[in-house]
Each structure stands twice: as structure tokens, then as C-alpha cells.
Amino acid sequence: MDPLPTPQTQPGRDGLAALLAQPRTALIGLDFDGTLAPIVADPEQARAHPDAVPALAELAPQVASVAVITGRPPEVAVRYGGFAGVPGLEHLTVLGHYGAERWDAATGTVSAPPPHPGVAAVRTELPRLLERAGSGEGTWIEEKGRALAVHTRRAADPQAAFESLRGPLADLATRHGLIVEPGRLVLELRPPGMDKGVALLDHARAIGAGCVVYAGDDLGDLPAFAAVDKLRTNGTPGLLICSGSTEVSELAERADLVVNGPEGVVDLLRTLAAQLG
């Protein structure tokens, strides 16, 4: 087993030291797409790295909580991750729709508030907007239940299509009380008031976490990074991990530790489990 990598910042080194010293108080927060699952052209084909679940099953019993925090509906993340019914993951939590919905492995059920009415209105108007915008073949809509995402990765010029849609989608979202969350060649329209930072802070406070680790790969993970920074300012050690991506340099620059995508995340989880065991 490889040794644990050394974080490049002092707060990160302090966070790792706290995790190793008192793992039973630690919260391990993880994004799904790009962190536990490789990015693919069709999000419906995304699946967790084949070694992700075994690594989590080794690590989870040794820490206070493992939480997967994702923009996907939680039942989709559970299915694509293969998290249900796995020994060692009995207390796994999936916070879907940026924390608006919660799945607990202990019960296998999802709890959620009523959906925001603006999502239904946007769902009706969005196809016509894309047609008027002339964003090109290959731009498509992903249905996420409590949100809608417009992907441009399959377009002839993905970045140009992405940029051309930012303004029109922002206007549409504003009219219906939603916000637009940009990501890696995707623009997500969703209700305000919830993000990965809010979800992470709420969960950390609910379990009384003594240290918090968070790993992510995209712009939507920046609020979670900010949440860990806030916790550190208030005396709770934390470690920020970037699942390495050349597409989102801002996250890498903010991280205490950069690993090589989902494979690197899985290797780190396995190494942590071995160290703690």
C-alpha cells in the first residue's frame, strides 16, 4: 500500500493529522461525478469506479460518517454507485439535489420536501429556448427531477455552445425563481438556497464532526470547499481534495491535495482505510 500523500498546505496537513488521530469524529464528504465516478459523455452511463465501493466499505466503519453529496437525485446516485445493501456501508448517507433530498442506507428510503414550482415551468420552456438559441446539434437536456441540466459536451464546439447559453439560461432561471449553476460543459437550473456547502455544513453540525474531509472535481464543489474553510476558521480541522481535472483549475488551486481523478480518490480512500485499520 502506498503511503498517504502529504497535503501541500498547513491547514490540509492539520486536517489529515486530525483525521488520523480521531477518525471516529471524522466526516468524509464526497462528490459523485468526476470524484467517485469518471466523467463520461452521457451522464446516464456514469458508474462509480469499480474499486470505489470496496474502498468506502473498508473506510466507513472507521469514521463518524461518509456522505456522498451530489446534484443528482439520491436514488440515481445510489443506483449508479452501487451503494445499497453493501456490508460496511450501513450508515452511508447520500445527500442528493445538493442536500434537498437525503437517502440513508440504514432505511433505504429518501426524504424530501415538495419540489420548487419553477422547475416545472422551466421544464416546459427549455426545449423552445434551446431551439431559438440555435445552440447546435449535440446540446441536450438532462432531467434531474428537482433540477434540469443543459449539456454541451456533445456539441461540435462544446465551449462556444456553453458560453452562448449562459445568458439565456440565466434569464430563464431568474424569471422562475431558480439559479444557474455552471459546471464542466453543463449548466444546471435549480432552486436557490441549497448547495453542496450548505449540505456539508448541515451534516457536519448534525453529527458533531470533529474534522471534515471533502473531495470534489467541479465548480459546484466550490461551496463545499468554502464550507470546510469556514469550519477550519471556527476550529474544526479539515482537508480539501481535488479529483484532478485540467478543466477546473480553480478547484485545484483551492485544494490542499490534488489526486489523479476518481482512481486517485479511490487509492486515497483505500490508503486511509489501511492506515486507520
Care to count the β-strands? 12
- Read across the widest sheet, the strand sequence of neighbours is 5-4-3-2-1-10-11-12
The DSSP helix count reads: 9
* Helicity range: 25-40%
Distance between the termini: 13 Å
Structure at a glance:
The chain is α/β, with parallel strands linked by helices.
Which helices and strands appear, and what pairs or packs with what?
Blueprint: H1 10-21, E1 26-30, H2 52-59, E2 65-69, H3 74-81, E3 93-96, E4 101-104, E5 109-111, H4 117-133, E6 140-143, E7 148-151, H5 158-175, E8 179-182, E9 186-190, H6 196-207, E10 211-216, H7 222-233, E11 238-243, H8 249-254, E12 257-259, H9 261-276
Parallel strand pairs: 1-2, 1-10, 2-3, 10-11, 11-12
Antiparallel strand pairs: 3-4, 4-5, 6-7, 7-9, 8-9
Helix pairs in contact: 2-9, 4-5, 6-7
Provide a descriptive summary of the structure in words.
This protein has helices spanning 10-21, 52-59, 74-81, 117-133, 158-175, 196-207, 222-233, 249-254, 261-276, and strands at residues 26-30, 65-69, 93-96, 101-104, 109-111, 140-143, 148-151, 179-182, 186-190, 211-216, 238-243, 257-259. It has 277 residues and is an alpha/beta fold. An 8-stranded mixed β-sheet has the order 5-4-3-2-1-10-11-12, sandwiched between helices. A 4-stranded antiparallel β-sheet has the order 6-7-9-8, with helices on one face. The two termini are 13 Å apart. The relative contact order is 0.19. The mean pLDDT is 93.
